[in-house]
Design goal:
about 280 residues; alpha+beta; Alpha-Beta Plaits; Molybdopterin biosynthesis moea protein, domain 2; 3 domains; five-stranded antiparallel beta sheet; 12 strands; about 15% strand; disordered N terminus
Length: about 280
């Protein structure tokens, strides 16, 4: 009797969760799937707090999300099921999915390395002072090829050294050194997986936008495009100053080119006059 009552209660709870998600899917512009794998509960609570008033954040079971998506009359929404994984949060908002994704990626937390992990980039121990005191750390640093010297009772690293190269496995010794030097080569955070925009009726993938890298790339593209635009004479607010300057320099060059033949012509006329005068005489 108790078992059947419990099962009925659980079933009712699932129906309520699905109904709530269906309502959000129907009334919100953006549906964003986010991986929260290995995210601490405290960081998850920060996410909920940060987007309060801007987005509704839910972490239902995978089966609940799938049922809610299946209940949609929009076939594009149903396709989001392909990207639902374990440890997936689902955000509902009326804001742009790319804007929210960028904010999520900026919320990552640096963490220490563990033995056996693969280095995402070259992990470098930089030259300079440390807070380590002489002792066992001297031999540990020497074992991985790091040159040191003692200054004012603290260990000083003489030269920068690549401790682990990109795509190599991190050893126990390397992980211990990084721990002592407070080097955190990894980060955890909310990873946007896929988004549906009801205005466009489209699913967007690869929405991991790094603002700093994007701005840097735009600056680089602009610096390359500007001289090309000037070269082909494309008129815009950005190029007009350069085009006028270029036109002025061309004008000056043409003036110099035109002045030279005039002087030569005057010289020839003068010579002809002198010749005729001599003949007449």
């Amino acid at each position: 009797m108790t078992t059947s009552t419990k099962q009925a209660h659980v079933s009712e709870k699932k129906v309520k969760q699905v109904s709530e998600l269906v309502n959000l899917i129907k009334n919100k512009q953006t549906i964003l799937l986010v991986s929260i794998k290995s995210i601490p509960a405290s960081q998850y609570q920060e996410l909920v707090k940060k987007f309060r008033g801007r987005a509704v954040v839910k972490v239902p079971k995978k089966s609940i999300i799938s049922r809610a998506l299946d209940s949609s009359s929009d076939e594009s929404v149903k396709k989001l099921k392909e990207y639902v994984q374990d440890s997936t949060a689902i955000l509902f908002s009326d804001e742009d999915s790319f804007e929210i994704s960028a904010e999520l990626l900026n919320k990552k937390t640096p963490i220490r390395a563990k033995p056996g992990q693969i280095a995402p980039e070259d992990i470098i121990v930089q030259a300079g002072p440390t807070e380590l005191v002489p002792g066992p750390a001297i031999s540990e640093l020497g074992a991985v090829g790091i040159q040191i010297q003692i200054e004012k009772g603290k260990i000083n690293i003489k030269e920068s050294k690549i401790l682990v190269k990109k795509d190599q496995k991190i050893s126990q010794a390397a992980a211990d050194i990084m721990g002592k030097l407070d080097i955190k080569p990894f980060s955890i955070g909310f990873v946007p997986v896929a988004a549906f925009d009801s205005k466009d009726g489209k699913i967007y993938l690869n929405i991991k936008i790094n603002r700093e890298e994007t701005i840097s790339q735009l600056k680089n593209d602009f610096s390359r495009a500007l001289p090309f635009a000037v070269q082909i004479g494309y008129i815009s607010e950005e190029t007009i100053r350069f085009l006028l300057s270029k036109a002025y320099s061309h004008e000056r060059a043409l003036e110099k080119f035109a002045e030279k033949p005039v002087e030569e012509e005057k010289l020839e006329v003068a010579e002809d006059t002198q010749t005729k005068s001599g003949e007449e005489k």
